Amino acid sequence: MKKELRSEFFAWFKGLSESEISDLVGKMPVHNPEGHQLSDKNNALLNFQNPEMKFTVVAGFQQWLGFGRCVKKGQKGSFIFFPSITKAKKDDQGNETSPESERFLMVPVFDISQTFEIKEDPSKPVSNKKGSKEPVELAF
User: Fold this and answer.
1) In the beta sheet, which residues pair with residue 110?
2) Mean pLDDT for the chain?
């Protein structure tokens, strides 16, 4: 599924002119909950997968939990590219056997419209990604 999506997307994306790409990005400035805008390719990838949906703020499932929100049951995620750095591996003598490398994974994200606010229950605090028991404030 991911490989097919990636192949279809790149074939579609390569056919776009610079003005078409800027038009796409201008229509949909998508952000993450911290307020950072997604890359042009990730914006285009979201639009390619689900052109009828208006994405505004996207995050992964666990990321939404950290912001005090939960993905609604039955919602389908859309995939974006996410950088992953592999650390250099060393053998027993400390010699580097494989260098540090960067690659991009396709990870599912959900729009804020696909989530609901978690009702806070004092007996079950929600843990965010930084280990705190309090939900993090959205940047918006």
Assistant:
1) 59
2) 78
* Domain boundaries of the chain, sorted by first residue: 2-88+97-117
Q: Average pLDDT for residues 4-20, to the nearest whole number?
A: 74
- Measured CA to CA, the distance from residue 128 to residue 132 in angstroms comes to 6
pLDDT band at 1 (very low <50, low <70, confident <90, very high): low
pLDDT of residue 21: 65
Cα distance between residue 124 and residue 140, in whole Å = 26
pLDDT at residue number 19 = 75
Are 107 and 83 a contacting pair, CB within 8 Å?
A: no
Question: Which of 50, 55, 43 has its CA nearest to residue 80?
Answer: 43
Place of tokens 């859309």: 78
Instruction: Enter the DSSP assignment of 137.
Output: P
Output the CA–CA distances (angstroms, integers) from residue 126 to 47, 65, 114, 122, in the order listed: 32, 7, 19, 9
